[in-house]
Amino acid sequence: MSNNERVRIGLCADTHFWPTNTLFSGSHGSLQLQPWSEQLQNALLAELENAQLDYVIHLGDVTCGGGVYDMPPDEFYAALDRTQQAYRQLSARIYALPGNHDCPPGGGNWSYFEDLWALQPGMGEIIDTPMARLILLNTQGHSVEQIEAAKPTDPVYGWVGDSELARLEEALATAGSRPVLLFTHQLLHPWSADKPWEDFYEIRNATPVLDLLAQYGNVKAVFQAHAHRLDVQVLHVGDHPCHFIVIPAIIEYPLGWLYLELTPHTLQVALQRLPLPELADLGGYSGEGQFWRSGKPEWAELKIELV
For 3-305, CATH number? Predict the structure, then answer.
C-alpha cells in the first residue's frame, strides 16, 4: 500500500514531563515516573520518528501544572517550552490539546499553552485527511467562575465552551461523506473496566457533545486521555455504533502510545509500548499492581470499519 493510500498517526498523552527527583503516586498507588521524564520523552520521540508518521497528536497533560504536583511556575513554563520545541523536531506534523495539568500551577487559564501551540482560546483544530476528518476538541473551556471555584487546584473535569461546541457542530455538519474521528482530553463516557468511576474524569457537559454526535452520526471513534489506562468499548450514539477508546499514559504503566493507520475503508489501532521494560515493571508492580492499565489483550490491536 502506498503512502497516498494510508495516513499514519501517533497518538500520545499524559506525558507529565517534569525532570524532578520527586516520586508521585497516582490512583490505586500507581507510581508516576517523573524522575525519568527525559528518558521517557527521548524514547517516545524516537519511537514516533521511527514510525514514519504523517501526524502526531498529543492529547494533553504535557507537564505537571494545575493542581496536585506543586510544580514551581518557572519549571512549568520551561517544561512547556522545552517539550513543544522537542516535538516540533519530529518529521511528522504535530498537534496538541491542553490537559487539565497544562495550566499554571495552582490553577488558572490555558492561554500560555494555547499560544504556544497556536490554538484559539478554548478551541481545538481540524485535520482533514483523504480518509477521515479529525476533530481535536478542546475540553479546557471552563469559565472564570469554574476556574476560581477549583482553586488552589485545576478543575480536573473537562468543559467544552459554547464557541467550541459551535465549532464542533460546524465541523460535523461539513464533513461531507468523510467519517470523523474525535479527540479529547477528558472522557465523554465512563470506561468499561471494573475500576471505580469518579466524576473528575468526565467532560461535565458531555450531553450536548453526545447529542451532536447522535445528530450527525458520522463519528466512528472517540479517543480520550486523562485516565492513564487503555479502555475500549463500542456504544451506540443515536442509531450509530461508535468506538470510545481511552489511551494509556506515558508517565505510568504501560508507558504506551497508540499507532493509528487510516486506509480508505478501515482504521487500524495498535498499542505501542516504549522499549523501557525496567521502568514499565517499576510502574506495573507499584501500589496494588497496575498491569490492568494495559487493558484486555484484544484491545492491543483493533480494526474499525470506516464505511
Answer: 3.60.21.10
